[in-house]
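All the exercises in this workshop are built on plain-text protein records. There is nothing in a record beyond a sequence line and a structure line. A learned vocabulary of local backbone shapes supplies the integers on the structure line. The question running through the whole workshop is how a given chain folds. Here is such a record, shown just as it appears in the course material:

***
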Amino acid sequence: MQYFLGIEVGTTRVKTAIYDIEGNQITEETSSHVVFYDKKQNSAESPVLNWWFSVKKTIRKALLKVDPKNIKAICVGSHGPSLVALDKKFNPVGNSILWMDRRGSNEAEFLSKKLGLKSNDLAWFIPRAMYLRNNSPESYKKVRYFVQPLDYINCKLTGIIRTSIVSDTIKIWNEKTIAASSLPRELFPKEIKMGETLGTTSKYTSEETGLPLGVPVIAGTGGADFLEVLISSGSLKKGIVCDRGGSSQGVNMCWDTLFGDKRFFEAPHPLLKGLYHISGLMATTGKALHWYKNLYYGKGAGFEKFFEDASKSPPGSKRLIFLPYLTGERTPWWDPNARGVFFGLSLEHTKHDIVRAILEGTGFGINHMLRLFKQHGAAASEIRVCGGQAKSPLWNQIKADITNLPVVTNKVTDGSTLGLAIIAGFGAGVYKDIVSSGREIVKVAQVYEPNESSHRIYSQMQPIYENLYPLLKTQFKKLSSI
């Protein structure tokens, strides 16, 4: 029996899963880690060592379900773009500056202007390194390497430091950006492409985790965690949208032409020759749910009551619209100063309407991107929903009703670790091709067809949602300066 180990270092937890050669999940183990938020500074950090503790813990638990000798390869993925600073001995220099950290806006704006880019959003890696240099000079003096979370874990597994990239066109930095930042080039380790063997598990790793010595560690998706899900969701086809719903939202689609629209990320597709990868991002979608749930249901409460209450409100939440911009917004506005808004709140609204409006806010944001896709001639045919949001039938139906597209869920809803396992199998020589293997392995669980009457309501509310930010942009800026 051959098994592959996928390890996903998420924003708030580590997931470690073992899959067999046919893509069946044998086991999945999770372990949470702390994130430090400072609302006044707009900062978000995480202790780097906690990730390694969680990785070790989950590997040991997962290996109880199989013979460790049958683990043929490992692949690690992670959130991003999050900054990890290491010293010359590969020890962390302070906490990781996470992808949702909104400091460094001055550095991002500086780079945007210098490089002639429209966006100055902090969905970049280099501005965070610049921020550390400019604001923590004592810490910066100790830095020998800037890497991503997955690169740090790979280093712990193998003792080798590399920068994981998807391809020559999809990576977290390039030579022009480094030159514009005036950061020393030697702070950025050599690159290794997805699917290549980075090294093998060391004696230290074997002792710490229970893994055998010498298991191949395959380079993952270079912080482009969306690709893990594209591989495992059946989204590697023109016109199929992949909706990756976690703490934030990623909307991805393959198309045969570039848009030339700087509001989106566009690049030649790393896995599909002749096609392009188009993607947009929303900053705080699932995180908005957690925020409201913790405030009004309690931190220890599950989401069952939340979704039950949302189901008691009608489509449109009695004319209530939520902008999920709790830490700014990415596509299409790219504004770190934007903030969340409940628009249309009245005395008739109940808790049920508010929680449904939060769910619908994500749907409106996704549909806004799809409408912009369509303006460029790219019409979506269906949506594959992945991540934790895929487990909510109500949320899936809301997305179908708002977008007027079929929403499809797979049996493996959280496909990040499955995608990593497929990459591990490819790197180990078991799978000949990542794309075809992903298509064969994916298994559809359910299809949510749009409801016509609900869509009529949402189609009237969609333009209102899209018009709110332009009307509030100046006020967001003024509010941020207080």
The chain has 15 helices and 22 strands.
